[in-house]
Backbone:
């Protein structure tokens, strides 16, 4: 026998024992005191109601039948007999039996309903205690969005206690919820499928904005009517920030690669020019060394020129690699004039091919700036390219682009202007 069946059996036995004992005692007292059939019947009804509260309908029927028999045997003439002389007594016994059965049914149904409610509340309390063990924020709200349950995870994450919010405020007003789509559409999907999940933005008690992965589950009653909404939220703020950082880095890398595509001719010229000088210098060096009397001084001078050309080529490649790199932003103290000069040197061929003369008006000895070198280079390259494009239609005057730097209070300003 299972524990549940054992409990039912014990309750049944207790009800029969209580009903039989009290019925026998009431019969003895009523008979000795000479109670009328009406008074005794009323006393029996009280006993039947009390025994029905224990909950077994079958036991209650048995007690009602036993009470009717006692009423007939001890209080209806002829006494000590189950026979009935007066037809009115038959009607009284039928009324008593009917009334006792109706009362038994009503009380038993009410007791069972109350027991189900108690069992349900007990189960809910157990579930609530389990929900308090999780670190996720979980709360329940009714169909008017009023909070009815707020677990410990929600208290720790959002900063409000259950006493602050339960039954006092709606979730969307409290958390200042920002939805990914209109709330009416979300509610319609929830009512249609009983589930909804997505990302929401909430505001905590301290004013901090957080992004949560939210899952809503609609609870319905036995008639399928919407009853409440269970909402579970996981904090994904840091994950979203990391993803946005990666996306920004990807976009910045694409922008730099696009810029390099526009500077292909300039880059090729900047590389070819020192390489050509290296090749010519090597030939000259061979000629000086192949003489009958090698001219070591000239050969040394030419080799120094080759070394300088190699360094220039290496520097160009370093700059191009920096622009094409996929590394994240790295801020460091920089000389802004240095960065401008590097960009103009890299774009010299592009400027020459469009007949644009660069002029730099750089104030010397400016304070260092904290910035990312590659990002600054890209900004200045874009400025120069825009300036070149803006002067394409100029035919009647020199094309000139002026880039200047200066200090203003605690800021370093870079400005540019063109003939356009």
Residues:
């Amino acid at each position: 026998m299972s524990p549940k069946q054992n409990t039912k059996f014990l309750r049944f036995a207790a009800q029969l024992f209580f009903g039989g004992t009290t019925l026998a005692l009431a019969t003895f007292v009523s008979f000795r005191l000479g109670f009328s059939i009406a008074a005794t019947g009323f006393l029996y009804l009280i006993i039947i109601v009390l025994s029905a509260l224990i909950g077994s309908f079958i036991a209650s029927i048995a007690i009602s039948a036993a009470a009717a028999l006692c009423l007939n045997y001890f209080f209806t003439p002829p006494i000590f007999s189950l026979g009935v002389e007066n037809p009115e007594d038959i009607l009284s016994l039928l009324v008593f039996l009917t009334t006792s059965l109706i009362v038994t049914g009503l009380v038993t149904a009410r007791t069972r309903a109350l027991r189900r409610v108690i069992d349900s509340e007990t189960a809910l309390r157990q579930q609530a205690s389990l929900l308090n063990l999780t670190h996720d924020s979980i709360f329940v709200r009714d169909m008017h969005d009023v909070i009815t349950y707020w677990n410990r995870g929600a208290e720790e994450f959002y900063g409000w206690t259950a006493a602050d919010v339960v039954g006092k405020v709606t979730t969307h007003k409290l958390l200042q919820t920002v939805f990914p789509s209109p709330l009416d559409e979300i509610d319609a999907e929830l009512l249609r499928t009983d589930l909804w999940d997505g990302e929401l933005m909430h505001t905590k008690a301290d004013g901090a904005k957080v992004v949560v992965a939210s899952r809503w589950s609609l609870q319905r009653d036995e008639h399928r009517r919407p009853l409440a909404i269970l909402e579970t939220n996981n904090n994904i703020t840091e994950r979203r920030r990391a993803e946005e950082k990666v996306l920004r880095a990807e976009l910045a890398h694409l922008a730099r690669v696009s810029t390099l595509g526009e500077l292909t001719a300039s880059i090729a010229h900047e590389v070819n020019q020192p390489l050509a000088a290296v090749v010519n210098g090597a030939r000259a060096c061979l000629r000086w060394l192949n003489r009958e009397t090698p001219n070591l001084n000239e050969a040394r001078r030419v080799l120094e020129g080759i070394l300088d050309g190699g360094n220039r080529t290496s520097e160009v490649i370093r700059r191009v690699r920096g622009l094409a790199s996929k590394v994240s932003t790295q801020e460091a103290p920089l000389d802004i004039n240095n960065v401008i000069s590097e960009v103009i040197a890299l774009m010299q061929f592009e400027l020459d091919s469009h007949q644009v003369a660069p002029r730099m008006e750089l104030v010397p000895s400016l304070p260092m700036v904290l910035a990312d070198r590659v990002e600054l280079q890209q900004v200045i390259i874009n400025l120069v390219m825009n300036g070149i494009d803006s002067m394409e239609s100029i035919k009647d005057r020199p094309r000139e682009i002026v880039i200047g730097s200066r200090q203003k209070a605690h800021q370093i300003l870079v400005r540019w202007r063109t003939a356009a």
Q: What stands out?
A: Residues 87-131 form the longest helix (45 residues). The two ends are 98 Å apart (CA to CA).
